[in-house]
Write a structure and sequence with these properties.
The complex is a heterodimer of chains A (432) and B (90). Chain A has a domain of 161 residues. Chain A is built from 14 helices and three strands. The two termini of chain A are 24 Å apart. Chain B is of the alpha/beta class and 90 residues long. Classes of the chains: A mainly alpha (432), B alpha/beta (90). At the A-B interface, helix 10 of A face helix 1 and strand 2 of B.
């Protein structure tokens, strides 16, 4: 038992190690030589950790972005009370979560082996967050005295089913985008991706493909994703900075003081470039880690699960439609601003617009929306993402997870979790 | 021998190309180290062969010192094989 918990914590609870092992296994099964095995395994782990480092840079930049826009709208997050919170929740249910994740992955492999749904979920960090959020929902639905193994098995089955079926349902739409059947999307943005493709078909115009935007020679710099990210964020940062400097409220003064001796405008511009730098770092990490895991996965897939396909993180769809990525994010950003104001003024909930979720999910929705509805489809997809994330966060934090981990739900929960959350809660009440 | 598979962002498409190049090389019995990367990073790398599309080859320029192999369909192993063997045997 202790060994299992140790393995669950140190192995499956640490995505970099888990993925390193998967790559190692894949390379060994392919009978690669020692040099290739070592270099492949190391690069996969390093790549995965680079992604974390890049994400930290992005989060750092967003750390000035979010309070800035909250102050622009004069919103304040009301203090939540009477919940466990991530730290206390982990201490009490953490091993159940990691164990459920471990067994859920085995359920996924078994389902891939014996059903026609040949998808193996490999997005380790999302595996962890989704299990955590669903555990929070289950514990709240059943109560704190939920039996340990009951919780573990319940979650393992749900996760295993989700990790197998989510890529399977998304695949027909993804196949049209990638033009091949080699990889699948294993990411919690699948619901907004599918909805965007469907809405794009109805309301979009496929003839205006975002990828056919022919930029004049003078605007050639817009082809580079680094440049466009910095530009978008730069505009938003500078607009926010100017508004704060005009507003001069105590909150605004406090934020402006963070720039120190530097001009607040220059400080804001540097923050937007820092955000773009974070994205560039993430992409380097993604290349190193995906570049090892995909070929290694082929090794495992062909040996253990004949005909299996890897389900991978959101950025695998970005290269197929880089313009749509930006348009989708823009749609999500505009939507988030609108819902921020609407939610604040109607139900009185202060939406925390986590740019990471809006960017990664909005971008996926943009690519899927563009595939059926062109530029308009991509924009609609982005807006839909913001709608699901904003209202989903309000409903989840207020009703389904308010005694367990609402803090985590505010920054780590996203599209699929919000849509499936009520179903998980209902099932939990049914089974316990 | 060091070979680069190159696409715009150096993420998905070039990875598929890299895997197909590796498959083709295995069939040909050629031992090579294949990496995938984006077009701007590829310019500063010292390699023997760069495999990419016509459009990106223009962006790449001629100052890389590598043989540039043009492939139109990244998923067509027969085309990759033809283009590669021409470059390797020349």
């Amino acid at each position: 038992m202790e060994i299992i918990t140790w393995i669950a914590n140190n192995f499956f609870g640490t995505p970099a190690i888990l993925l390193g092992f998967i790559v190692l296994l894949g390379l060994l099964l392919q009978k690669k030589n020692l040099s290739q095995v070592i270099s492949g395994t190391f690069k996969a782990i390093i790549g995965f950790l680079i992604i974390n480092a890049g994400a930290a840079v992005i989060t750092g930049s967003l750390g000035s972005f979010e309070p800035m826009w909250k102050e622009v709208f004069g919103l304040e997050t009301p203090p939540l009370a009477g919940f466990l919170g991530q730290e206390a929740f982990n201490a009490k249910f953490g091993s159940a979560v990691t164990l459920a994740m471990t067994l859920g992955f085995l359920v996924n492999v078994l389902l891939a082996r014996f059903t026609p749904f040949k998808y193996i979920y490999l997005t380790g960090h999302m595996m962890f967050w989704t299990t955590t959020i669903f555990a929070g929902i289950t514990v709240q639905a059943v109560g704190g005295d939920i039996p340990f193994w009951g919780l573990v098995l319940f979650l393992a089955v749900i996760m295993g089913l989700y990790w197998t079926l989510q890529p399977a349902i998304t695949q027909p739409f993804l196949r049209k985008i990638t033009g091949n059947d080699n990889v699948a999307l294993g990411h919690t943005s699948s619901s907004v991706a599918i909805l965007s493709a469907l809405l794009g078909k109805v309301f979009g115009n496929k003839k205006n493909d975002a990828e056919h935007i022919n930029l004049p020679k003078k605007l050639e710099f817009l082809r580079d994703s680094n440049v466009i990210t910095a530009l978008t964020m730069g505009i938003l940062f500078v607009v926010g900075a100017v508004i704060l400097m005009v507003k001069k409220t105590p909150g605004a003064e406090k934020l402006i003081a963070e720039a120190g001796n530097q001009s607040f405008i220059v400080y804001s511009i540097v923050q937007s470039f820092t955000f773009a730098a974070g994205i560039a770092i993430v992409l380097v990490g993604v290349r190193m880690f995906i570049g090892e895991i995909v070929p290694a996965f082929n090794g495992i897939a062909t040996k253990l699960v004949p005909g299996a396909k890897p389900a991978l993180d959101a950025p695998i769809v970005y290269p197929y439609a880089p313009n749509s990525v930006i348009i989708g994010f823009l749609g999500a950003f505009i939507g988030a601003i609108i819902w921020l104001v609407v939610l604040g003024n109607t139900v009185g909930y202060v939406f925390v617009p986590t740019m990471i979720v809006l960017f990664f999910h909005g971008a996926v929705a943009g690519v899927f929306g563009n595939s059926t509805g062109g530029i308009r489809g991509a924009l609609i997809g982005g807006f839909l993402t913001a709608t699901v994330v904003a209202w989903g966060q309000y409903i989840m934090v207020t009703f389904f997870i308010n005694t367990t981990v609402p803090d985590t739900a505010m920054w780590a929960a996203d599209s699929d979790m919000f849509i499936l959350g009520p179903i998980v809660s209902m099932l939990a009440k049914l089974f316990f | 021998m060091k070979i680069l598979a190159v696409c715009g962002l150096g993420q998905g498409t070039s990875l598929i190309l890299r895997m197909n190049v590796e498959t083709v090389l295995r069939d040909m019995g050629v031992d090579a180290d294949v990496e995938h990367i984006d077009v701007s990073a590829a310019r500063s790398m010292n390699v023997d062969i760069i495999v990419t599309s016509q459009e990106l080859a223009e962006t790449l320029g001629t100052d890389t010192g590598a043989k540039v192999v043009i492939v139109n369909n990244y998923f067509d192993n027969a085309e990759i094989k033809n283009a590669l063997s021409a470059a390797i045997n020349s």
